[in-house]
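Design a sequence for this backbone.
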């Protein structure tokens, strides 16, 4: 039976009142407050939870630095919507154009917002570690787009993959508007693709997820000993201000406290490994040793996995 005109009317009305493409795009993110962490350096400290429909996938610390030539952005967030929110927040602080973007690592909650900045500034260079560029070419960017869209139930829809187009590595420096942006990379830490950005003139360092504050990281792609070593190396900058990938900005205590988490995790797991316990048998002891961190977001969810990962790394180091 052919559909009659009366059955088609609701469809026609629905079509007329929904502009094409609207359903393919998640809603805007309400503007978050921005914190000035030192002269000309601003951070939007994102929510601490995992991506969900309420936070719309926004969870990192997008940052921007206002130089005399224009704005340099670090990690514009998890979606095109987060990048657009960042553009609006930046416009309240400065009318200068965005002249460069740095992406600290492959995890999509930090860089999928590139898309919005690039749409507004088509020529802007995006810097990232060569391993990040390689992982995106291998499909990791697409995986992150899909993961965030699933976890947020479509709130990040419309986000695509806009990765770095300029490879940078340890020791590279850039000059923008009278400020130096120095890249640090010390091998596999949080991931294989981490860069940290130091601005000596402002004594500030952006740590990516090599350091978190008040929140337990996903360390599945990392190396605990490498991450501990990276914390030591970045503390050598002697910066006054450290901006973690998630959680509040602070002084040298921020990397030190996080490094201590990793050290306690590793040494406690090693202690019970040496005593012949398996990973699930040592959970209570490790939880107790890490008691100072029990209030951090994600502690209960991640503890078992962190013990398992530490166990595998202790075991590998044993051979
Ligand atoms: Zn990460």
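Sequence:
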């Amino acid at each position: 039976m052919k559909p009659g005109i009366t059955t088609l009317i609701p469809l026609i009305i629905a079509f007329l009142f929904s502009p094409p493409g609207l359903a393919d795009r998640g809603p805007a993110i309400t503007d978050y407050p921005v914190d000035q962490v030192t002269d000309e350096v601003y951070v939007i400290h994102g929510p601490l939870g995992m991506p969900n429909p309420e936070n719309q996938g926004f969870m990192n610390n997008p940052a921007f630095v206002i130089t005399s030539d224009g704005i340099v952005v670090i990690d514009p967030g998890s979606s095109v919507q987060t990048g657009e929110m960042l553009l609006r927040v930046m416009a309240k602080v400065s009318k200068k154009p965005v002249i460069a973007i740095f992406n600290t690592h492959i995890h999509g909650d930090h860089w999928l917002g590139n898309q919005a900045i690039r749409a507004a500034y088509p020529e802007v260079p995006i810097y990232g570690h060569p391993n990040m560029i390689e992982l995106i070419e291998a499909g990791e960017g697409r995986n992150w787009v899909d993961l965030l869209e699933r976890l947020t139930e479509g709130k990040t829809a419309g986000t695509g993959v806009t990765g770095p187009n300029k490879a940078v590595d340890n020791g590279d420096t850039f000059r923008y508007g009278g400020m130096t942006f120095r890249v640090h990379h010390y091998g596999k830490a949080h991931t294989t693709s981490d860069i940290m950005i130091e601005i000596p003139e402002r004594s500030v360092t952006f740590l990516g997820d090599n350091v978190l504050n008040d929140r337990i990281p996903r360390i599945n792609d990392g190396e605990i000993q490498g991450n501990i070593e990276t914390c030591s190396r970045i503390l050598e900058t002697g910066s006054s201000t450290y901006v973690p990938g998630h959680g509040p900005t602070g002084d040298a205590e921020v990397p030190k406290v996080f490094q201590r988490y990793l050290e306690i995790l590793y040494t406690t797991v090693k202690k019970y490994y040496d005593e012949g316990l398996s990973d699930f048998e040592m959970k209570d002891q490790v939880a107790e040793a890490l008691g100072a961190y029990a209030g951090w977001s994600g502690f209960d969810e991640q503890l078992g996995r962190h013990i398992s990962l530490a166990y595998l790394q202790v075991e590998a180091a044993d051979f």
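The two ends are 72 Å apart (CA to CA).
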